[in-house]
Amino acid sequence: MEQDSIERTISIPLPPDEAWQFLTERDHLEHWLAPQVELEPVEGGRVRVVGDDGVERCGEVESVEEPRHLRFTWSGPDEDSSIVEITVEPDGEGSRIDVSERRAEPVEALARIYVFEVAAVPDGPLLLAA
Amino acid sequence: MSERVDATFAALSDPTRRRVVDLLSERGGATASELARELPVTRQAVAKHLAVLDAAGLVSASRSGRELRYRLTPRPFEDAVGWMVRVGAEWDDRLARLADAAGRYG
To answer: Which of A4, A18, A74, B51 could form a disulfide with A14, with the two C-beta atoms 3.0–4.6 Å apart?
Structure first.
C-alpha cells in the first residue's frame, strides 16, 4: 500500500466542461472544497483555502489542462506540502472525477517502520532499528 | 529525536497498545469504552494504555460528552497512517459535498 497518498473517485451527472467549473470557479469551490477558496486556474496561480476548522492552506497551481486536469500544491501551518491532482473523464452523460493527494516529501524511514509494525504485525515483535 | 524515538518504542512495545494505535488509525478517534469493546481487556486497562501512549506523545485526548476521545497525534504518526486517515476523511467530506452540489446543479 502506498503510504503517502490517498485516492478517491466520484461520478457526477454533469459533462466534463460543466464539471470543470465546479473545480475551478470560486462560487462552486466554496460549496464543496472549503468555505473560503482562492484558486487561480493558471500555471503558477495562487491557491489559498480556509477550511471548516479555520485552518488556512496556501500553495500554487502547477498545471492546468482545461477541462481534464488540474494539479496544485498546498500546505497548512506546520504541515508538509502536498500535491493535489484532479482529473475529469467523460462517463456516459456525466463525468468521473479522480482526486489524489500525495505528500511532496517522502516520509521518514523510521516512521515507515512504526507503520509497518503497527499496521502489518500488531502482535509481532518490534523491529528495533533506532 | 532519540528521546522521542525511545519513548515511542517503549510505548509501542506492548501488543495491546499497538492494537489500540491500530484501532485509532482505522477509526480516526475513539473513547476508552469504544476501544474496550474491540479488545479483550477492560475499559480501565485501555485507559491505562491510553495514558502511556499519551505520555509518549502518540495520542491526544479531547472531551466528548462524559468521556475523553483519543486520536493519534499528528507526529510521529502524521508521517504515516495518521496523515492518510486525516487526508482521506477530508476528501470524503469534500467529494460528498461536490456530488451533492453537482447533483443539485445538473
So the answer is: A18
Distance CA A101, CA A82 (A): 7
Q: Do the Cβ atoms of A13 and B106 come closer than 8 Å?
A: yes
CA distance A84 to A129: 33
Of B21, B83, B102, the CB nearest to A14: B102
Question: What is the widest separation between alpha-carbon atoms in chain A?
Answer: 55
Inter-chain CB proximity A111 and B103 less than 8 Å: no
Rounded to two decimals, the pTM is 0.60
Residues on chain A touching B104 (C-beta within 8 angstroms): none
| Residue B43 Ramachandran class (φ > 0 left, ψ -120 to 50 alpha, else beta) | alpha
Instruction: Decide: residue A11, CB within 10 A, 0-12 exposed, 13-18 middle, 19+ buried.
Output: middle
Q: What is the ipTM of this complex?
A: 0.80
Cis peptide before A90 (omega within 30 of 0): no
Element (H or E) spanning A63, and its range? strand A56-65
* A112 contact residues in B (CB cutoff 8 A): 80
